[in-house]
Amino acid sequence: MKHLPMLARVLLGLIFAVLGVVGLFELGPQPEMSEEAGAFMGAIMDTGYLWPTIKVTEIVCGVLLILGLFVPLALVVLAPVVLNILLFHVFLAPEGVVIGIVAVVLGLYVAHQHRESFSAVLQRKA
Fold first, then answer.
1. Host domain of residue 52
2. Model pLDDT, residue 28
3. Is 91 inside a domain boundary?
4. Is 124 part of a structural domain of the chain?
5. Confidence at 120, pLDDT banded by 50, 70, 90
6. Per-residue pLDDT averaged across 106-124, rounded?
7. Is residue 123 part of a domain?
8. For residues 93 and 40, what is the distance between their CA atoms, to the nearest angstrom?
9. Can you tell me the distance from the alpha carbon of 115 to that of 94, in angstroms, rounded to the nearest whole number?
10. Closest CA to 114 of 86, 81, 82, 73
11. Sign of torsion over alpha carbons 62, 64, 68, 74
12. Are 107 and 82 in contact (CB under 8 A)?
């Protein structure tokens, strides 16, 4: 049990580093999507900058998590990405909701392990 926090952190980092590289360089086949999900992903890709920005962010934060460097910062940066992954799968592509749930659970667990780092920003008065 004493290795569980490190295992969760590294697993979350691997998910983002690997899927970030796969998505950035289009190394895997594109999964079948509903019309709504495809339109959403198409809009993100059509901007020309948003998809690479998200993927590079995932890769950098994933590597930071794997190495155990700036873990609270990596978690804060990845939080909106994780939330959007979960919401995308809940509302547009339910067949992939498991990866969203896994990312949320791992992220919350790792954040809980670093809760002392977040205590100052969670105070009601500055």
1. 4-118
2. 86
3. yes
4. no
5. confident
6. 94
7. no
8. 11
9. 31
10. 73
11. negative
12. yes
